[in-house]
Amino acid sequence: MRRAIALALENVRTASGGPFAAVIVKQDRIIAEGTNRVTGTNDPTAHAEIVAIREACRVLADFQLSGCELYTTCEPCPMCLGAIYWARPARIFYAATAADAADAGFDDAFIYDELNIAPAGRRIPMTQLLRDDSLAIFSAWKQQENKTSY
Amino acid sequence: MRRAIALALENVRTASGGPFAAVIVKQDRIIAEGTNRVTGTNDPTAHAEIVAIREACRVLADFQLSGCELYTTCEPCPMCLGAIYWARPARIFYAATAADAADAGFDDAFIYDELNIAPAGRRIPMTQLLRDDSLAIFSAWKQQENKTSY
Description:
Helices cover 44% and strands 19% of the residues of chain A. Chain A is α+β, with helices and mostly antiparallel strands.
C-alpha cells in the first residue's frame, strides 16, 4: 500500500492524471501497478484499478487474477468494483474511503445511487428496444460448443 | 441496434468472445463498435461497452462522450454502467435484460448485490489500511493547480 500511495502522489505531482493508484501482488511480489490515466490518455475507463488489472492479466496471460491481492489507494468506484469481481482476485486492500474521495471532488456515490434506480429513471436515460431479436445471440451462445466461459 | 446484434452474433460464431456487442453513435453516424473480447485478449475488462467507449474516446480524442448514444445488446453490468457514467454519453439503448443474461450464465446480479454490501462483508474481502497516509494524496490534488478535472 505504501508503494501505491507513492505512485498516486507522483501521478498528482506530474499532472499525469487523477489522485489514485493501485498495485497487484501475487505470492508477495508486485506483478502490476496502475495509476489513473483518464485525462492523459483520453480513456474514461483508465482508473488505477482497471489499468493495474489489465496489466496483471497481461503479465499472467490469464483473464483471472486467482490468488492475487489488489491494493488501491481509495475504495473502488462501481466500475472498478465490477472489474474486480470479473477478474476475481482473492482479496482487496484500500486506504481512503469513498467519502474521502467525494471530499476531493470525486462523487462515486452518485453512480452507486444510480445503479439502484430502474434503467428508465436514471440520469442517463436507458431505453429498451429489439429484445426479441437480441435473444438469438444467447441462443447461439448456448449452442456454440467451441466457447470459453468466463 | 441491428448492427450491434449482428456483431454479437458474429462474435459468438467466430468464438471470439462472449455474446455481447455495443455500438456508439454521434450525429446519426456510428463512430465506434465493440464486441466482448475477455477471453480472446485475456482482459476481464474487455466487455463490449468498455471496448466501444475506449474506441469512441480515441476517435473523438476526448474522455467524454457528450452527445453520443450507446447501443448495447444487453443491459450493462455494474462495471460497464460505471464506465458509462464516467464517459457521460447522452443516452443508452439496450436490448436483452440482465435476467436474459443470467439465463445464459452471466450473473451480473451477483455483482449488483455485492455492491450493496459493506466492503468487509463482501465475497471478495475488502480491508482498509493506511487511510491517514493516503489522505496526503487528496491534499496534494487539491493544491495542484496544473490539473485537469474529469
